[in-house]
Specification:
The complex is a heterodimer of chains A (63) and B (132). With 63 residues, chain A is an all-alpha fold. Chain A has a domain of 25 residues. The N and C termini of chain A lie far apart (61 Å). The relative contact order of chain A is 0.06. The mean pLDDT of chain A is 94. Classes of the chains: A mainly alpha (63), B mainly alpha (132). The interface between A and B is medium-sized, with 22 and 24 residues.
Chain lengths: 63, 132
């Protein structure tokens, strides 16, 4: 494998990695937005669920 | 402190009945006003807490606070898990400070070494050849 081929392969890998990272970033941002929307639309339910989850975890930790 | 039967307008011929009815009425009215007051106080408390507004402004923080409150209510505060979690949190919080201190130290060592050698440290004897 000569230097030019190696360079080309590395460039391709870098482009693929950048594309994957961008996609992951977009998906995470989308997920974050959806979670925030759900919390804002149903604050009482979300707070109650969080409270219950914390209670259960605290109960488990105390045993 | 007997019942004021003659003064009561709701007389039914019985001497005790109007007084009791009046008292029941007044108790009912007091209970209704207490309920109204409690409702108003609860509404004021809710407005003062402004949970909805706080959730709109800081959704994750409020969910984390609710989970923390549940954790404390569940009895998890004074446990080994909490101590471990607090220790980890302390280490994570101290990490940037330690890193910046190390970076500062390294920068000082790298940049200050030639200066200190030039200004502070004594010059080598003339018969010893200098490395430069």
């Amino acid at each position: 494998m000569d230097a030019q081929t190696l360079q080309q392969t590395l460039k391709e890998q870098q482009a693929r990695l950048e594309h994957g990272l961008e996609q992951a970033q977009e998906e995470l941002s989308d997920l974050n937005q959806r979670v925030v929307d759900v919390i804002k639309r149903r604050p009482g339910t979300c707070l109650l669920i969080a409270l219950a989850a914390g209670f259960v975890i605290g109960r488990m930790a105390s045993r | 402190m007997g019942p004021k039967a003659p003064a009561s307008p709701e007389g039914s011929g019985n001497g005790h009945a109007p007084g009791i009815a009046g008292r029941v009425d007044s108790i009912g009215r007091a209970a209704a006003s207490l309920t109204e007051e409690l409702r108003g106080t609860a509404a004021d408390f809710g407005r003062a807490l402004d949970l909805r507004g706080r959730v709109q402004r800081h959704p994750y923080l409020m969910v984390a606070a609710a989970a923390g409150l549940g954790y404390v209510l569940g009895g998890g505060l004074f446990t080994r898990t909490t101590a471990r979690l607090l220790g980890m949190a302390g280490r994570v919080a101290a990490l940037p400070m330690v890193r910046s201190e190390l970076v500062n130290l390294a920068e000082a060592m790298l940049s200050g070494a030639p200066d200190t050698q030039d200004e502070d440290s004594p010059r080598p004897p003339s018969d010893v050849p200098s490395p430069s």
